[in-house]
Design goal:
This is Type I restriction enzyme HindI endonuclease subunit-like C-terminal domain-containing protein. The protein is mostly helical and about 55 residues long. It has one domain. It is about 70% helix and about 0% strand. The chain contains 2 helices and no strands. It starts with 8 loop residues before the first helix and ends with a helix.
Length: about 55
Amino acid sequence: MTVDWHLREQARANLRRMVKRVLRKHGYPPDKQETASRTVIEQAELFAQHAAD
């Protein structure tokens, strides 16, 4: 199963929400959460691309 990230903006929003929740739970600095969330989403997109190949 693959995720079409370009069409699944809602999936990105849900992933962003989950990542931020985990970061807060583990005491990650609030000012760095946005960058960390972006990094995790980029990694998930790359993983999905490679898994689909």
